[in-house]
Design a protein that fits this description.
CATH class of the domain at 20-86 and 126-214: Alpha Beta
Low-confidence stretches: none
Number of strands: 4
CATH architecture of the domain at 20-86 and 126-214: 3-Layer(aba) Sandwich
Mean pLDDT: 95
Largest sheet: 4 strands, antiparallel
CATH topology of the domain at 20-86 and 126-214: NADH Oxidase
CATH superfamily of the domain at 20-86 and 126-214: NADH Oxidase
Structural class: alpha+beta
Helix content: 25-40%
Amino acid sequence: MNSAPAPKADVLEAVTGRRSIRRFLPTPVSEECVESILEAASRAPSGTNIQPWLVRVVTGAARENLCRAALAAAEADQYSLEYSYLPAKMKEPYLSRRRKIGFDLYAKYGIDRQDMAARKTAMLQNFEFFGAPVGLFFIMERDMALGAWLDCGMFMQNVMITARAHGLETCPQQAWCDIGGVVHHELGIPESQIVLSGMAMGFADPNAAVNTLRSDRIPPEEFVQWHR
């Protein structure tokens, strides 16, 4: 018997209620649950159905080893960028948006914006998946064209939304691409493939102040133009 479609309210809440979680509980997540999420997410569209996404999932000892190596590299400022995510010179209004979310995040952590040491400590939590028991890496063949980046982005969004149906939350982490060399080495990823992003997945810590951060969104009238 086919299950009934989800009510519209549930679909909307899954999207609008999504947040980037930065503190997780250590509660384990089963491999079966992760596989279910990835299977559902693979219904994402892709140009001519090429399905260019590849995923590496890290848990247990593999996760611990990766985090240890990543923290050592980041603490020593030994960066190896997979690609440039942002332009070298940011213009408005994007610069102001980026600064605001940064300052809002520091406020939730209780960090003074001038305290560079504390800011770095907070940033380094990326390389522990913010305590999440599951880490994912989204990868594709390096010689794919720009359309595949769109495809992989839609797949990642499906992962984040589908995870919420299992009571899980996520945090997409492009920060891992700042130390791409470590990820390649620790996970045996060939240079013919590019790491697009990492992602933390687990159960959100309901008592963490940082998890109450809700980023601003500009209203549609500021980014939509109608042609009638």
